[in-house]
TrEMBL record:
The keyword NADP does not apply. Residues 1-24 form the signal peptide. Keywords: Glycoprotein, Signal. It comes from the Eukaryota. The lineage of its organism: Eukaryota, Viridiplantae, Streptophyta, Embryophyta, Tracheophyta. Belongs to the multicopper oxidase family. InterPro entries: Cu-oxidase-like_N, Cu-oxidase_2nd, Cu-oxidase_C, Cu-oxidase_fam, Cupredoxin, CuRO_1_AAO-like. Residues 35-148, 160-292, 378-516 form the Plastocyanin-like domain. GO terms for molecular function: copper ion binding; oxidoreductase activity. This is L-ascorbate oxidase homolog.
């Protein structure tokens, strides 16, 4: 009798643990991407594009929090290729980040499989090829991570969602643009601007009176855009994985590499309306239009396009400050985002990173604190893992802008896992900048004009409800400041999202490290890792 009870008890435990094991296994999504050249003509001129499974732009990835997303990339181009997942946080695994500092590129006519988990994240992101100037020819797409059904989103459930990709565009293909940069000539102005790959004719079918979620990303190379919809307002609900205070805007600036999502309640009046994306801070201004097509519409979109800002830098900076965290809203987990009191944490290190245009050995380059980045033949992450000397040295870049002449180099900043740091992007140039940090979201605590100094930190930072994001803009002759909790071990790319600048050296890596080798802090090298450079044996 007694034995039977004990036995049942044991069986109970076994059954329970089996069940919980099954529940702990998160769903898998398998994607197979064949990447090829193909003819496209977004601006009416035939040109060579980069297609994924025959599509330009590439397919939208839709995943749910904690999903495993497995992407087998088959490279049918004539050049080595990598994709990076802009804003999708590779937790404990810079091995999957898809940049030349972490991965050997996928050679032509071969394939490589990315294995990523959408652990504890929601949000609107993008992907694109990180190699050479490939993304100038396509290969980009939307990457949405939706909340699990058990976690309510802090806004009205939309009737439907739209993924909207806005990009500046050139009639020259990626190799022609690369040749321009390699020759040292200035990068040309774009020839136009596209919404989901088309300058005029993208359309979004909607039902009057219903509310839609627009996930809008700037996947362009150089140009900030302003987005607006005729006779409609945009209620901002999310930027790059953070739920925002739901401010209502007539139009919204989205800088290169950034994503925002907003709710749009469609007018009851059944006519079509213009959707407009126009370039910011450029002369001339380029404009793309799409159509909000209402069910039962009796007239095509007509009338004046809604007016947007053109130069108006301060307008943009002011708008940036209105984008705030919703402290009581959840994100991927049920607990409120604001329960992490970032403003009360001690900053242990301040990095001031200044971008500059340089002439090095007679060629146009761009640098960060006077170092213009050059990719070594061996990815930094592999060199680190296999203890190969001579690939990089830590702190090969100064914490603040030096007076030294600019040099070519392989900049890696060494930091300790769990440090809480401040990064100030100081832009003393007359052009717009945009910075992206892989593996991290960060608090965008301050935007200001002129030279940053530590007095400004105390006076002008938002230490209460600044939103987190992955990409921050820096206005001409201005600074932007972020706070980052370095909680993700790995080798992480910190780069200009302005692609010609990144191609010519405006990037670096941040090595976030502790000496404990443990899968709790970082996953081991993937079994399928491609080897190259000094690691090739
Ligand atoms: C290449 O694709 C095949 C399936 O077609 C797969 O079995 C293999 O693991 C892939 N190779 C790599 C290195 O991921
Ligand atoms: C913040 O999110 C909550 C839901 O958690 C919502 O009720 C509230 O309206 C939001 N606040 C703002 C300012 O958007
Ligand atoms: C910091 O910058 C502000 C605004 O530009 C300026 O008024 C102040 O004098 C500066 N402080 C220092 C210590 O340089």
């Amino acid at each position: 009798m007694r034995q039977a009870i004990v036995l049942r008890f044991l069986v109970g435990i076994l059954v329970c643990s089996t069940v919980s094991y099954v529940e702990a296994e998160d769903p898998y999504r398998f994607l197979n991407w064949e990447v090829t050249y193909g003819e496209i003509s977004p601006l009416g001129v035939k040109q060579r594009g980069i297609l994924i499974n025959g599509q330009f732009p590439g397919p939208t990835v839709n995943a749910v929090t904690n999903d495993n997303v497995i992407v087998n990339v088959i490279n049918k181009l004539d050049e080595p290729l990598l994709f990076t997942w802009n804003g999708v946080k590779q937790r404990k695994s810079s091995w999957q980040d898809g940049v030349l500092g972490t991965n050997c590129p996928i050679p032509p006519n071969s394939n490589w499989t990315y294995k990523m988990q959408m652990k504890d994240q929601i949000g609107t992101f993008t992907y694109f090829p990180s190699t050479l100037m490939h993304r100038a020819a396509g290969g980009f797409g939307g990457f949405n991570v939706l909340a699990r059904s058990v976690i309510p989103v802090p806004y009205q459930k939309p009737y439907e969602e739209f993924t909207v990709l806005v990009s500046d565009w050139w009639k020259k293909d990626h190799k022609e643009l690369q040749n321009i940069l390699d020759s040292g000539a200035p990068f040309p102005l774009p020839d136009g601007i596209l919404i989901n790959g088309l300058p005029r004719s993208s359309s979004f079918s909607v039902v009057p009176g219903q509310t839609y979620l627009f996930r809008v990303s700037n996947v362009g190379l150089t140009t900030s855009i302003n987005f607006r919809i005729q006779d409609h307002t945009l209620r901002l609900v999310e930027v790059e994985g953070a739920h925002t205070a739901q401010e209502v805007y007539e139009s919204l600036d989205i800088h290169v590499g950034q994503s925002s999502s907003f709710l749009v309640t469609v007018n009851e009046n059944p006519k079509d309306y213009f959707i407009v994306a126009s370039t910011r801070f450029t002369k001339p201004i380029f404009t793309a239009t799409a159509v909000l097509q209402l069910a039962g519409s009796r007239s095509p979109a007509s009338g004046q396009l809604p007016i947007g800002p053109t130069y108006h830098l301060h307008w943009s900076m002011k708008q940036a400050r209105t984008i705030r965290w919703n402290l009581t809203a959840n994100a991927a987990r049920p607990n409120p985002q604001g329960s992490f009191h970032y403003g009360t944490i001690n900053v242990v290190r301040t990095l001031v990173l200044a971008n500059s245009a340089e002439n090095i050995n007679g060629k146009q380059r761009y640098s960060v604190n006077k170092v213009s980045y050059q990719n070594p033949e061996t990815p930094l992450k592999l060199a680190d893992y296999f203890n190969i000397p001579g690939v990089f040295t830590l702190n090969s870049i100064k914490d603040t802008p030096p007076a030294d002449p600019a040099v070519l180099g392989t900049s890696v900043i060494g930091t300790a896992l769990h440090d809480f740091i401040e990064i100030v992007f100081q832009n003393n140039e007359n052009t717009m900048q945009s910075w992206h940090f892989d593996g991290y979201d960060f608090w965008t605590v301050g935007f200001g004009s002129g030279q940053w100094n530590s007095t400004l930190r105390r006076r002008f930072y938002n230490l209460v409800d600044a939103t987190t994001r992955y990409t921050v803009q820096v206005y001409p002759n201005s600074w932007s400041a972020i706070l980052v909790s370095l909680d993700n071990k790995g080798m992480w790319n910190l780069r200009s999202a302005i692609w010609p600048r990144r191609y010519l050296g405006q990037e670096l890596y941040v090595r976030v490290w502790n000496d404990e080798a443990s899968p709790y802090t970082e996953y081991d090298i993937p079994a399928n890792a491609i080897l190259c450079g000094k690691v090739k044996k």
